[in-house]
Design brief:
Rossmann fold; 5-stranded parallel β-sheet; globular
């Protein structure tokens, strides 16, 4: 089974992926970590703006499904039965994953809850004001360019939507239910 995870900023995509890795022995692959590695190779600062720019550059250069295609190549070097790929952000990525018999899950939560979470995790990409957080999300939400993020369209493609306004335990109950209903 391959599960792609999409969702809004700070919704809990990584929490779901970590849970699947820990509890169900999924191989956890992160688009975010892949992009961060590319940013470091280029000698740039790792922040949301460079993450977005480098991801868009890579998709423009290699095709809209490049990021997930590269991650799946890595997965084949270390095969496990199940794989979770976190942070699917473009329609091209989801179309490619679907061609690989992938299930797409979306994670969402209230915007104020999400902002509190990203401030709390204090990563280099999350040190932003609420206004910047909202502007970043708006920028990534829609695009007609297949090489750019289009979270709205990708979330709409998800077969499972997890609402994460509560505790991690409440989220994990939803994950378990989704797993039971998976094909």
């Amino acid at each position: 089974m391959i599960i792609g995870i999409t969702g809004t900023l700070g919704a809990g995509k990584g929490t779901v992926a970590q849970y699947l890795a820990k509890k169900h022995n999924f191989m956890y692959l992160s688009v975010r970590n892949f992009i961060a590695g590319e940013i470091l190779k280029r000698g740039l600062a790792v922040n949301r703006d460079t993450m977005t720019q480098v991801a868009n550059d890579l998709r423009a250069l290699h095709g809209p499904n490049y990021l997930v295609e590269e991650l799946l190549k890595q997965a084949k070097l270390h095969p496990k039965n199940n794989i979770v790929i976190e942070s699917i952000r473009s329609v091209g990525e989801e179309k490619y994953l679907k061609s690989q018999s992938t299930t797409l899950w979306a994670v969402d939560a209230d915007i104020n809850t999400r902002y509190k979470r990203i401030v709390g995790r204090a990563s280099e990409t999350d040190a932003v004001s609420f206004e910047k957080f909202k502007a970043d999300e708006d920028r990534e939400m829609e695009s007609n360019d297949p090489n750019k993020q289009n979270l709205k369209a990708v979330i709409a493609m998800a077969g499972v939507v997890l609402i994460n306004n509560g505790t991690p335990e409440e989220l994990f109950v939803q994950v378990e239910k989704a797993l039971q209903q998976a094909p």
